[in-house]
Amino acid sequence: MTTPNPPLAWEPDACTLPTAERPLRLAEFDDLFTGLTSLDRLSPVHVRMHLVGAAGLEDTVRDLTARETECCSLFTFTATPIPSADRDRLTLDVEVPSAHTAVLEALAKRAETIAADGKAS
Q1: Is the dihedral of CA 110, 114, 120, 121 positive or negative?
Q2: Into how many domains does the chain fold?
Q3: In the prediction, which pLDDT does 8 show?
Q4: How confident is the model at residue 98, as a pLDDT?
Q5: For residue 82, how many other CB atoms are within 10 A of its CB?
Q6: Range of the domain at 48
Q7: Is 10 domain-assigned?
Q8: Does residue 30 contact residue 114 with C-beta atoms inside 8 Å?
């Protein structure tokens, strides 16, 4: 069972995404996190997520992370596709300034929780 998390628990107060849109954005990230195969904490300001998904995963990730950067500019996302014959795979590097390590850790924990449960809450 998924531990309930408040909508966008990782978002800092500076987030400019309208409140009404936050649950929808959370659902998009949760859907993405169901494809998390592993997560590496490279440093307190940098995590690397290994993701798998259906065809179009790269486009989905690039669209979602571009929209997230528009409202929450503290994140730097870098998507790198990995060649695979069976499913779309990519690594997603997420970096934040040192003042926002708690935000990054909350995002990483949510991703791990959703992946472990195998479904969005």
Answers
A1: negative
A2: 1
A3: 43
A4: 94
A5: 12
A6: 36-117
A7: no
A8: yes
* Nearest Cα residue to 29 out of 68, 74, 73, 75: 68
Three-state secondary-structure class, residue 52: strand
Whether 11 is in a domain gets the answer no
Per-residue pLDDT tens for 16-63? 655 666 778 788 999 999 999 999 999 999 999 999 998 899 999 999
**Overall average pLDDT of the 102-108 stretch:** 92
Which residue shows structure tokens 């997520």?
Answer: 49
Phi first, then psi: what are they for 105, rounded to 5°? Answer: -65, -40
